[in-house]
Write a structure and sequence with these properties.
The protein is of the alpha+beta class and 359 residues long. The chain is 36% helix and 14% strand. It has eleven helices and 13 strands. It has helices spanning 43-56, 85-91, 96-115, 155-160, 182-198, 208-217, 223-226, 232-241, 253-269, 297-308, 328-338, and strands spanning 3-5, 11-13, 17-24, 30-36, 65-69, 74-78, 83-84, 118-120, 128-131, 136-139, 145-147, 353-354, 357-358. The strands form four sheets. Strands 1, 2, 3, 4, 5 and 6 form a six-stranded antiparallel beta sheet that branches. A three-stranded antiparallel beta sheet has the order 7-9-10. Strand 3 (17-24) and strand 4 (30-36) form a beta hairpin. Helix 3 (96-115) packs antiparallel against helix 9 and helix 5 (182-198) runs antiparallel to helix 8. The longest helix has 20 residues, at 96-115. The chain is globular, with a radius of gyration of 22 Å. The relative contact order is 0.09.
């Protein structure tokens, strides 16, 4: 089948994958061509899991794979009518009711993955496609997710994936004291909602270092000050999700979704929200230790000193021994955040002794 590139806003690339739209001249089909890269993932496994998610998430619209070129690890997907989400946002043609409907669907997709204990590595407007006519929101990629219970062994992927700089959370930069979790997705979701309701990115610029610095240290202008007619409670809801400290964001899917649904209903019904308290029904579903625990800086410094002495093409192994409860995991995680992954390839693991046998 003869194809040619068409000029749309649908093009995205990071160190995990790239995708773009192509059209078929002969049949008039619109297709998405996705190329998976080998540095971070098992490509066949990622596609197999994506297909499984598409079948499991029968209430979500995840585009379906049509064909593949196994030699190049390129996969074709049939695109439904519609446009890339960022293109929809830039047009600024949706009315408030349509934006609330779209926001509700965005929240539903993200929280549906969280409900199944899955976390997005790179949650941005680039992985969504919207059909304005039928009001259908599609997810363009479900390979860039990880089981939450495997997160501790996958922290380095957040650093290496080169996520969308406009929607990356502070903790995904590994320049904050916090570590990524589902609340990181809440922050990225808030960036998308900010743009949806204002038509603008909260942090502007083209320089990645500058934008990441803003994520870490600057508060964006409140959405209702950008879009003058926006409900202030909805604006505060978005700002809460954009808190630099994950502990100041929503802590549960229930709290987040309940608040948004109540705010949306009040806005659509024209009723007052003056006494509305954000997060009043938001409680963590499980107890978690603070992620900015005390770290042994002397050990960190020794590990850094050792890594800096490694020459190109050398292979090294370091063993860190500690009693159970000594928090060696936090030491290793902090060390991994400080590494330059353009210089090193690194893997980590752990074992304990059981009847004198490591496992």
């Amino acid at each position: 089948m003869r194809t040619t590139d068409i000029h749309t806003a649908l093009f995205y690339e990071n160190k995990w994958l790239s995708f773009k739209e192509k059209s078929s001249i002969s049949q008039g089909n619109r297709i998405l061509v996705k190329s998976l890269k080998s540095d971070l993932i098992d490509r066949r496994s990622a596609i197999t899991k994506e297909e499984a998610y598409r079948k499991q998430f029968d209430d979500l619209k995840i585009i379906q794979k049509a064909s593949e070129q196994s030699d190049a690890f390129e996969y074709s997907y049939a695109l439904p009518p519609g446009s890339p989400l960022w293109q929809i946002i830039q047009r600024k043609k949706l009315n408030l009711e349509e934006r609330l409907f779209l926001a509700k669907n965005l929240i539903h997709i993200v929280l549906s993955f969280h409900k199944r204990k899955l976390l997005f590595y790179d949650l941005s407007w680039d992985i969504f496609w919207y059909d304005e006519l039928d009001q259908n929101l599609y997810l363009l990629d479900a390979t860039m997710v990880t089981p939450i219970d495997q997160l501790e062994t996958r922290y380095n992927v957040f650093l290496m994936i080169d996520s969308n700089m406009y929607t990356i959370s502070p903790e995904q930069t590994f320049q904050s004291s916090s570590i990524p979790d589902i609340r990181s997705n809440y922050y990225s979701l808030a960036i998308i909602l900010y743009a949806l309701f204002t038509g603008e990115k909260p942090f502007k610029g083209d320089d990645r270092v500058s934008i990441i610095h803003k994520h870490l240290s600057q508060l964006p202008k409140a959405p209702h000050l950008v879009q003058g007619d926006l409900n202030i409670i909805l604006s505060n809801f978005i700002i809460k999700l954009l808190s630099k400290n994950p502990n100041d964001r929503y802590q549960s899917a229930l709290g987040l979704s309940n608040d948004f649904n109540l705010i949306s209903d009040h806005i659509l019904n024209g009723t007052s929200l003056e006494d509305f308290e954000l997060g009043r029904n938001d409680f963590p579903l499980k107890f978690t230790m603070p992620d900015n625990v005390f770290i042994r800086e002397d050990i960190i410094n020794k590990l850094i000193e050792h890594s800096e002495g490694i020459n190109a093409a050398e292979k090294n192994i370091v063993l860190l021994q500690g009693e159970e409860g000594a928090d060696s995991d936090s030491i290793i995680n902090q060390f991994l955040r400080l590494l330059n992954y353009d210089t090193y390839y690194i893997g980590s693991g752990k074992y304990t002794l059981e009847n004198n046998l490591p496992y």
